[in-house]
TrEMBL record:
It is found in: Nucleus. One of its GO terms (molecular function) is DNA binding. This is WUSCHEL-related homeobox 8. GO terms for cellular component: nucleus. It comes from the Eukaryota.
């Protein structure tokens, strides 16, 4: 390659790098605004993804203090709190680490399901013990 061709190639590569960086910035900006806008339409809640929408991003992990607060609130109330209460809980928990309303909503849903599952295990064990007892007689 001649010196002129090498120089032209360098300029083309530099232009390509600039375009790639701009595309990356645009993608990140669009992704961020899409995540912030999600759930603002009629009938949508922030914790509900659109049908067929793939979840992206990192999983949320509670801090020990957030978990302690969530457990205390769960013990006080019945089931999943109202939308307004979820907002209040999120505001309180945000003082102790990053969290969204979707995280709070999902935590209560999962905690309720876990409680039901744990309550059904002892009942199943009792039925099995009764059945074994009847079979041994």
């Amino acid at each position: 390659m001649t010196d002129e061709q090498l120089e032209l190639l360098r300029r083309q590569i530099a232009a390509y790098i600039t375009i790639c960086e701009q595309l990356t910035e645009m993608h990140n900006a669009i992704s961020t605004s899409t995540q912030q806008d999600r759930g603002t339409g009629l009938g949508n809640e922030p914790w509900m993804a659109a049908a067929g929408e793939k979840r992206t991003g990192k999983r949320w992990s509670s801090t020990p203090l957030q978990l302690q607060i969530l457990e205390r609130i769960f013990e006080e109330g019945n089931g999943t709190p109202s939308k307004q209460r979820i907002k209040e809980i999120t505001t309180e928990l945000a003082q102790h680490g990053q969290i969204s309303e979707a995280n709070v909503y999902n935590w209560f849903q999962n905690r309720r399901a876990r409680l039901k599952r744990m309550q059904s295990v002892p009942e199943a064990n009792m039925r099995n013990q009764n059945l074994r007892h009847k079979l041994n007689l």
